[in-house]
């Protein structure tokens, strides 16, 4: 919902990659886990008569390469883009074309199963909150208190958000987070906005792992869930199904391979191969 969260997500991914590169055994375990997930997903999808044809795979690859499906694209341009991308992929990974296409086929199976599982649930109207905020870093308490006082003295909230908020994703629109449903925000923020009975400025600064927030509750309504929230709920249903299915399956992972876990190529090797290909 806001830039602080996005920055933390990116950093989490970078930290995870660094840890995996330092621990080849852990990296291989993750690959094995993904292979198990894929097998469970495909088996369940096939049991539900879900299928993926070659045309759908072609469309997914077109979208991935930036070509709009069902429009008059230049096939020569697409084929050249496909050739260049696949050659680079093959150079860095030795992946053949069947395996490359299988990546997209497996993803489509997962997407279709997620949609199928989601259709078994009903997503009715729910209480939601229209909310705005001004975000400060956790070490900027003095300025947060100063702006909070100015808000309470009647200065324009939206103008102050434009001037002071660290949330680059919505500062320019007055800190507007739009309509928020339960489960969209971190728990410490959600408890405040859904716990307040009245609209207006929340009487205290709200602290989360992303910073300090001055919060303005604009309105509360029972209303239909936005499409992105429904999709989040469906993803949660899918993830819960996958976890439960894995826990209830007789899966045994042996450890005889750990001493042979590859630690090459490292990043420097990859950079060298890229430079050689240029």
Structure report:
- The chain has two domains: 3-120 and 229-277, no CATH class; 126-224, Roll (Chitinase A, domain 3), CATH 3.10.50.40.
- Helices cover 56% and strands 12% of the residues.
- It has ten helices and five strands.
- The chain has helices at 3-22, 24-47, 54-64, 75-93, 97-118, 141-152, 157-164, 187-195, 227-247, 267-277; strands at 126-136, 176-180, 200-201, 206-208, 211-223.
- Strands 1, 2, 3, 4 and 5 form a five-stranded antiparallel beta sheet that branches.
- A hairpin with a 2-residue loop joins strand 4 and strand 5 (211-223).
- It is elongated, with a radius of gyration of 24 Å.
Q: How far apart are the first and last residues' alpha carbons, in Å?
A: 39 Å
What is the total number of structural domains?
A: 2
Number of strands: 5
What share of residues is helical?
Answer: 55-70%
Computed over alpha carbons, the radius of gyration is 24 Å
Contiguous low-pLDDT stretches (5 residues minimum) are 1-7
Strand content: 5-15%
Describe the largest sheet: 5 strands, antiparallel
Q: What is the mean pLDDT? A: 87
What is the count of DSSP helices, taking H or I runs of 4+ residues? 10
Apparent shape: elongated
The H/E string reads: HHHHHEHHEHEEEHH
């Amino acid at each position: 919902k806001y830039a602080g969260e996005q920055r933390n997500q990116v950093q989490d991914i970078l930290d995870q990659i660094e840890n995996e590169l330092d621990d080849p055994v852990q990296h291989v375990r993750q690959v094995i886990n993904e292979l198990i997930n894929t097998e469970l997903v495909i088996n369940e999808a096939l049991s539900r008569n879900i299928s993926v044809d070659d045309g759908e795979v072609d469309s997914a690859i077109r979208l991935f390469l930036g070509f709009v499906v069902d429009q008059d694209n230049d096939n020569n341009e697409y084929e050249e883009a496909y050739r260049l991308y696949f050659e680079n992929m093959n150079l860095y990974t030795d992946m053949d074309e069947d395996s490359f296409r299988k990546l997209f086929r497996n993803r489509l199976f997962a997407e279709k199963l997620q949609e199928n599982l989601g259709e078994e649930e009903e997503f009715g109207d729910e209480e939601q909150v229209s909310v705005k905020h001004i975000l400060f870093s956790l070490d900027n308490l003095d300025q947060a208190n100063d702006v909070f006082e100015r808000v309470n003295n009647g200065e324009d909230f939206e103008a102050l958000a434009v001037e002071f908020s660290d949330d680059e994703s919505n500062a320019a629109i007055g800190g507007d987070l739009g309509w928020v449903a339960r489960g969209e925000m971190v728990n410490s923020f959600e408890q405040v906005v859904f716990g307040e009975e009245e609209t207006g400025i929340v009487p205290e600064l709200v602290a989360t792992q992303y910073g300090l927030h001055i919060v303005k509750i604009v309105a509360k309504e029972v209303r239909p869930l936005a499409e992105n929230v429904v999709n989040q709920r469906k993803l949660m249903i899918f993830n819960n199904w996958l976890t439960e299915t894995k826990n209830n399956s007789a899966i045994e992972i042996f450890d005889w391979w750990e001493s042979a876990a590859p630690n090459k190529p490292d990043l420097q090797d990859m950079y060298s191969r890229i430079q050689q290909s240029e």
